[in-house]
Structures are given as structure tokens and as C-alpha cells.
Amino acid sequence: MRDRAWAWVGSTSSWVALLLGALTAVGSGLGSPGAAAAECPGHPNALGTSRVLVVDPQEHPRIGAMQYKETLPLRDHEVVLTFDDGPVPKYSNQVLQILADECVKATFFTIGRQAKADPEGVRKLAAAGHTVGTHSQNHPLSFNRMTLDQVKPEVDQGIASTAAALSDPSALSPFFRVPGLLRGEAVENYAGTLGLQMWSADFLADDWRSISGTKVYELAIKRLEARGKGILLLHDIHARTVDALPKILTELKAKGYRIVHVVAATPDRPATPTEPDDWLVHRPSDETPVAKWPAITPVDLAAADTRARATLDDFGVLDPLPASRAAPKPAWPRPALRLQTATAPALPAPSADLFAWPPATPLTAQRRQVARVERPAVKPAPRPVRMASLKRR
Fold first, then answer.
1. Which tens digits make up the pLDDT trace of 173-210?
2. Is 277 a catalytic residue?
3. Terminal CA-to-CA distance of the chain, rounded, Å?
4. Among 235, 236, 238, 261, which one carries the catalytic annotation?
5. How many whole angstroms separate alpha carbon 84 and alpha carbon 140?
6. What residue spans define the domains of the chain?
7. Low-confidence ranges of the chain (pLDDT < 50)
8. 12-271 falls under which CATH superfamily?
9. Neighbour-count burial for 279-289, b at 16+ CB within 10 Å, e otherwise
10. Which InterPro entries does this one have (predicted)?
């Protein structure tokens, strides 16, 4: 973690040493590039782990195509398995056994409260060679609205609880995933100050919903097939996930997918060499127009040679006219127009008294009188006399 002191440590020097040695215990079970099926005793047809991808959280602090512009630099048909919210012994132990039967390594994002309740479950993860990250202390679904003061204890206590559950705290990875993927500016900025790598996901299987294990399996494979590779988010706390996981691994092997295990870089374990474009969710190509001007090459104007001011002789004449040919008449001004302008009558110059102020004669506004039109009086028409009224008289 490059000598970054985490806020949750009790002693700065001891935790710097912890961070420099991060993942040593995790990596002890991963000496080879991957656990192939042939290296899975008793399971010759196991899926296995094809390779280990070492990442530097400082260089790529936020990953996951669902929310960020960068994701893991996976090759086609490569999958990273991740599990959230554990450990819960009833289901987490079954998930661990299923992965062990296939010699598959995954990344687990544990909740601090769960780690305190089942520290043995956290130690099992590390002992099996899996990567252990953190998922906050209490799993609040409000990180997108939290202030910095609210974020700090959730992140710090989650890390402290998980580290305390491990036999060797250096096995804790600097990986963090926001509960519910409800990311916010406060948690992202704070995670960056701690040197944590924020994990989102590339696709989901919706195993937190009240659906069957078969539906979880179908969604996982369908969405993986649509992308061709990526980070799959699952939960090791549900019976439906336990039911779906063997089917998912079997289908991955049948379709030629390969498992990749992700660990964090340390001074003794350098990051896997990659190109910047390998991390981009949308990689540029020759067929994709890019609305961006090329960079201008810097020029040292002070040291550049300065020429004297150009004259007409510097341009020369590319196609000189023959002597017998008359020069073309200028387009402007026309001689006729020039003659008319010179002979046009001029108005006399105004007297200087015209512009004097105040004027010698006071200015008075002219009054306009509106003529009054006399209309002849019109007598009203006599009212008609009704016969009934005459009879009453």
C-alpha cells in the first residue's frame, strides 16, 4: 500500500508493516500461476484457476463496468468470482467446499459485524487461499447519502473487525465494495485516502432476490455470455446461491471459460504488466470516432530562429507576365467611380454656432393642436305609441 497509514490502525508503524506485507498469507497458496484441473487432487475434471492477476490499487482505484470507466484487464472468456456479505457458517462453508472441489479461487468481501460473529469463517477463507476484502461494518444501504463523518466509522470498523478475525492480519486485502453498490462521493474519496481499491461488478446474478437457484444460474450464464468476460457478483449467505454455484461452475467449464484470481500488489509481488487500454470498459478502436483533437506538440518559441519581417520581394513572382502583355486593370477603385466622387457637389460646412451649448435661442417644443370635429346633434327617434296606452287615456 506504499506506506499509507490507515485511519483505523492503533499504531501507525505496525499497520504500515501490515500493509507492506498484505496478502502474503493469501499468496502462500498461490505459488503457481494457477491451479489447473490436473493440480486438483481427486477432481480430474475440475474447472481450476487459470491464472493470478496482481493489481495495484494505487494505479486503478475504482473498477467495475457497472459503475466505473475501468474494470479488470481480463481476456476473453475469463471470469472473476466475488462473494459479498459473509461469513454465515450455514452457507459460507458450503460455498467454500464447492469452490475447493473445483480448485477455484475467489474474492470475498466480508462484513465486519459478520467477521466478529464468525471469526473462524474469515480464517477459513484465508487458509483456503481466497482473497479477503471488506464490505463495511454494518452493511448500511445509505453510502450514497452519507457524509464523511458517517462513512469513516463504517469503513474503519469493517476493516478492523475483519483484520482482527484473521490469524495473520496481513492476509487482508486493500479491496472494498460498497454495500448495494450505492457508491457516493464521500466513500469514494475516503477509500482513496486509505489506498483502498473500490470494487463494483461487471454483471450480477440477482441472487439477493427471492428467486430460485435455477434462475440465479440462468441469469449468471446469460449475462456472462452477453459480455464474454467479467466480474460476477454473488452472495455466500443464501441457499439459492449454494444451489446455483455448482451449475455455474460446470457450465463455465463446458463453455470454455477460465477463472482468474485477483490479488493486490506488494513490494515482493509486482503488478501484472498491462496496457492502460486493457483496463478501459470501452476501448478505443480504429472504427470508433473519437471527438478529441490530437495534442499539440510543445514548441520552444524562445529558442526558435526569428526571421526579419517579410517584404514583397520575399514572395517573388511565380509566373511573370510577358513584356508585350499589359498588366490587368485593378478591380478597385474603378476609375469612373473615382471621377464621380471627385466631382460630386459638396454640402457647405455647418456653422460653429450650430453646436454651441447652451443655444442662443431657447429650445421650445412645438405644441400640436388637435382639431376638434363638431358633429351635428342627432335627435333621438320618437318612441312608438302603443294603442293600448291610448285606450287607457
1. 999 999 999 999 999 999 999 999 999 999 999 999 99
2. no
3. 123
4. 235
5. 13
6. 12-271
7. 1-34, 37-38
8. Glycoside hydrolase/deacetylase (3.20.20.370)
9. beeeeeeeeee
10. Glyco_hydro/deAcase_b/a-brl, NODB_dom, Polysacc_deacetylase_ArnD
